[in-house]
Amino acid sequence: MIKNFFFKTLMVAPMLFLASCSEIVDNIDRKNEQENYVSPYAGKWIGTYTGEVSGNLILNVSKSGSIEVTRIVNANVEETYYTSLQSAASAAISPSTSPKGFSLIGSLETKSGTWKHQYWSGSWSVQKQP
């Protein structure tokens, strides 16, 4: 009986070890995929926002989907703030308000959306630069 228990333990222990190794390798592969993933929306996007006030927009989208938004009014940089895509593969811009109260709502798939700033609002559109 002790031999039987010992034999089963010797058979199960390596299987558990191999299963653990396989899980570690899978996790490393997923991490490498995430690190090497490049959003299809990565790059520089330039456009305008119009409505009750108007100006220019520059969106710099990183490979991971983070966005640097630069808002320009009368040829002067009004502000730069950071937001992101809802996921690296998503075109939807995460709702995020700048320190001055400006926010973009929309999608890079449609290259457009709406904006809000304190009491004002309007629409925006951008084009990806080559």
Summarize the structure.
The protein has 130 residues and is of the alpha+beta class. It is built from one helix and seven strands; from the N terminus they run αβββββββ.
Descriptive overview:
The chain is of the alpha+beta class and 130 residues long. It has one helix and seven strands. The protein has one helix at residues 2-36, and strands spanning 43-51, 55-61, 66-73, 76-84, 102-107, 112-117, 120-128. The chain has a seven-stranded antiparallel β-sheet with strand order 4-3-2-1-7-6-5, with no helix packed on it. Strand 5 and strand 6 form a beta hairpin.
Features:
1 helix, 42% strand, elongated, seven-stranded antiparallel sheet, 130 residues, single chain, alpha+beta
How many individual helices?
A: 1
Poorly predicted tracts of residues: none
What order do the helices and strands follow? HEEEEEEE
Described by strand count, sense and barrel closure, the largest sheet is: 7 strands, antiparallel
Structural class assignment: alpha+beta
Rg from C-alpha positions?
25 Å
